[in-house]
Amino acid sequence: MTGAATETTPIGLPAGGATAPRPHPLRRLLRSPAAAIGLAVIVAFLGIAIFAPWISPYDPIATDFAAVRKAPSAAHWLGTDEIGRDVLSRVIFGSRASLLAGVVSVLISLAVGVPLGLLAGYAGGITDMLISRMTDALLACPFLILAIALAAFLGPSLENAMIAIGISATPAFIRLARGTTLSVKAEEYILAARAIGNPPWRVALRHVLPNIVPPLLVQATLAIAAAVIAEASLSFLGLGQQPPEPSWGSMLNTAKNYLDNAPWMALWPGLSIFVLVLSFNLVGDGLRDALDPHHA
Amino acid sequence: MLTFLVRRVATIFPTLVFVSMLIFGLQQLLPGDPAMILAGEERDPSVIAHLRETLHLDKPLPVRYLYWVRGVVHGDLGESLRTQQPVLQLILEKLPVTVELGAFAIAIAIAIGIPAGVVSAVKRGTAWDYGANIVALWGLSTPNFWLGIMLILLFSVTLGWLPASGYVSPFEDWRANVASMIMPAFVLGNAIAAVLMRHTRSAMLQVLSSDYVRTARAKGVPESRVIMKHALRNGLIPIITLGALELGTLLSGAVLTEQVFTIPGFGKLIVDAVFNRDYAVVQGVVMFTATAYIVLNLIADVAYAVVNPRIRYQ
Asked: Which of A145, A286, B71, B136 has a CA between 20 and 30 Å from the CA of residue A16?
């Protein structure tokens, strides 16, 4: 095991033991300007979502028929919608649905996908075959079409949209966890852990699982970006957050009917989705580089 | 080659069985009595009785699944509750519109993604590379329904150059057809172009550092010829597989694009079915899509094996 300090696993992770001094992954992440900006924007959106009731200028569902489709002004910075609701307040509160859906659906995917992937990769044989075929079946259904079908059968609501997105995104995590488990399982320290008599569950949970976390973290970050778009898509189709509660997707669905006389209604929710998704993609790309030991 | 083909075809059957179980299982997610829910708001007793009989609701679940699968194998995906038409017929009626949209979108994605990927790899580390990467990130991060709305705002509402929505068959008026397809196809092709660009860049970087490219350069072959003939030709081989994998992105994107531009295709069929609670159509569309995805991936794998003999012997 003398080479363990410099050896890397096939997934590009340190093979364990003493490693050459490298900066902490978070520091390496923040060294990338794009990733640092992305992280700052995500933190800002989190702040907006958490403190929405305090920073929002109006009640996001309060209608004002004296201010229907008003252009941006000092009173309504981003204008008002078709029933006089303040667009800025709805964009602020809409960040809650997007972030919640992004995070919760990916947590669902992780909670289902990682144990199944770990089990398939570690147990092998018929268990692996069954889980892999099930994963292939889920992957054969296009992500959004499966999410739409699930949301349709479960019923339209934000909670069901999160479940639908979570289930639809699960196969990617199963496949990644299985692949990385297969790589890690062949490492000498795993063989050593088994040789000293650790039961399989302990080897899998204590020795394999911690070593497959980095690639899962990258995938989870990128999956949040996809889940934010998926939630907006489902809400746009009427299968996510239900009116009058604000969500960026449902705001765009209404806005498309008023493009000729209230274009601001479509601009800000879409721009918010774009900026948030871009930020998660930047952080995901940055994390991949920061966690890759081959990357300088 | 025949062994490879047989082995590859054999692998799709268990996947199809799991797909059918998954899609059949969707119906079990409906809360309460499926016949009551599927019958719609009217809850006509004759419709409920008909549904109970056709869905074999009095039989145990595995038996119902076998009845359903037997129908699917014979091309019977059920019947639309709204129109009483066979689901497969509905799908086949709408499919040509989506295929046309998809073909336009892929053409746009190839026209943007591959040159951008090549330039990005060849000019690695320059402003061109950064520019292409920014365009790719933009493509990956933009929700296509929002891009569609913004394009309608610019080209239809503000400039009045293109129709905001609707579809005209190419057999009726090909000019109107192209005009109605430009924006939706660009919206749909945008995200695929970004993925193509990233893959082309990565494949080109790998090929450009290979020995045969170095040899070609050492022999004095002009750089343009090295890139176009030696590097690009080999670098593009993996893109065949990517094309099939992106079918999922294409179909998912088509659902939203067709909704934004009111195009009567396959995507709009599933959305309308969801709102009409026409669950047989929803199930049929998912089953059809998954089968098409599996078959196209099989074709891509075979095509890949034809151009790359190493695959056949693995």
From this structure: A286
> In the block, which residue shows the tokens 């399989």?
A200
- Residue B95 burial (CB count, 10 A): 16
pLDDT beyond 60 at A260: yes
ipTM of the predicted structure? Answer: 0.87
A128, two tokens: 């692996």
What is the reported pLDDT for A7? 39
Locus of tokens 């008002």: A80
Contact A190, A15 (CB under 8 A): no
Helix (H, G, I), strand (E, B) or coil at B118: helix
Question: Rounded distance, CA B60 to CA A42, Å?
Answer: 50
Burial B253-268 (b: 16+ CB within 10 A, else e): bbbbbbbbbebebbbb
Q: Which of residues 257-276 of B touch A (CB under 8 A)?
A: 259-260, 270-271, 273-275
Q: Are A141 and B289 in contact (CB under 8 A)?
A: yes
3-state helix, strand, coil split of chain B in percent (to 5) is 75, 0, 25
Q: Which helix (H) or strand (E) holds A146?
A: helix A143-154
For residue B310, what pLDDT is reported? 65
* Residue A192 Cα to chain centre, angstroms: 35
Contacts of A239 in chain B (CB under 8 A): 274
Alpha-carbon torsion, ordered B260, B262, B267, B269, to 10 deg: 140
> Across-strand partners of B79?
B86
Q: Is the dihedral of CA B196, B197, B200, B201 positive or negative?
A: negative
* Inter-chain CB proximity B255 and A145 less than 8 Å: yes
Amino acid type, B299: I
Structural contact between residues A253 and A235, judged by C-beta atoms closer than 8 angstroms:
yes
**C-alpha span between A266 and B147 (Å, rounded):** 10
**With an 8 Å Cβ cutoff, is B303 touching chain A?**
no
Measured at the alpha carbon of residue B291, what is the angle toward residues B286 and B294, in degrees to the nearest 5?
125
Q: What are the residue ranges of helices labelled H in chain B?
A: 2-28, 34-38, 45-54, 61-73, 87-122, 127-141, 144-151, 174-208, 211-218, 223-225, 233-235, 239-245, 247-260, 266-275, 279-307, 309-312
What does the block give as tokens for B52? 């109970």
Q: Any residues with CB less than 8 A from the CB of A252 and at least 6 apart, and which?
A: A232, A236, A266, A269, A270, B145, B146, B149
In tens, the pLDDT along A139-166 reads: 888 888 899 989 888 889 999 999 999 9
> DSSP code of B230?
I
SS3 (DSSP) at A80: strand
Residue B256 to residue A237, Cβ atoms within 8 A: yes
Please report, for residues A153, B246, B264, the alpha-carbon distance to residue B47 in angstroms, rounded to integers and kept in the order given.
20, 40, 28
pLDDT of residue B226: 86
* Pick from A140, A153, A236: CB nearest B19: A140
Is the Cα torsion angle B188, B189, B193, B196 positive or negative in sign?
positive
Q: How far apart are the C-alpha atoms of A190 and A208, rounded to whole Å? A: 7
Contact A233 B150 (CB under 8 A): no
| Residue A242 burial (CB count, 10 A) | 14
Residues of B in contact with A278 (CB under 8 A): 137-138, 141
